[in-house]
Automatic annotation (TrEMBL):
The lineage of its organism: Bacteria, Bacillati, Bacillota, Clostridia, Eubacteriales. This is Lipoprotein signal peptidase. This protein specifically catalyzes the removal of signal peptides from prolipoproteins. The active site is at 115, 131. The gene is lspA. GO terms for molecular function: aspartic-type endopeptidase activity. It comes from Candidatus Faecalibacterium intestinavium. Keywords: Aspartyl protease, Cell membrane, Hydrolase, Membrane, Protease, Transmembrane, Transmembrane helix. GO terms for biological process: proteolysis. It catalyses: Release of signal peptides from bacterial membrane prolipoproteins. Hydrolyzes -Xaa-Yaa-Zaa-|-(S,diacylglyceryl)Cys-, in which Xaa is hydrophobic (preferably Leu), and Yaa (Ala or Ser) and Zaa (Gly or Ala) have small, neutral side chains.
Amino acid sequence: MLYVIVNLFCVAAIIGLDQLIKWWAVEVLQPAGSMPLIPHVVELYFTYNQGMAFSMLSGRQLLLVVVTGIMLIGVAYWLFFRCRNNLLMQISLILVLGGGIGNFIDRVLNGQVVDYINLLFMKFAIFNFADICLCVGAGLWALSIILEEYHGASETRRKEN
């Protein structure tokens, strides 16, 4: 039970922080348009994204909501029922679920996602905290799968010898 409570608390904390930052962006950053965070490196730049990463599927809100909803249910299932005893996978799924729900809330309530982080030193899509959680979580998830496979193969070799 503690496992479930800790996971729910962590996911809720990510969602809460994401929604708080997006609220701030709408209230403070949108009227200003942009603000330097680290001069010539990173700026806070308010924009709405009607698609997903790099504005892909822009304007296809129903498809994005349905597919995202299905994916989030799958991630939640994996987090709560399939990844016990694997801390790296647990952390990765918490990040993916929290970030995914954060953007899902925007998409369902507003039909678009609030983005506000602009990397000035490279041409890159403007993104948000939830996107960072999703990307870091996906990377950690991939790493946890690779490590699990590696340890499984090592265990098999050890048993054969």
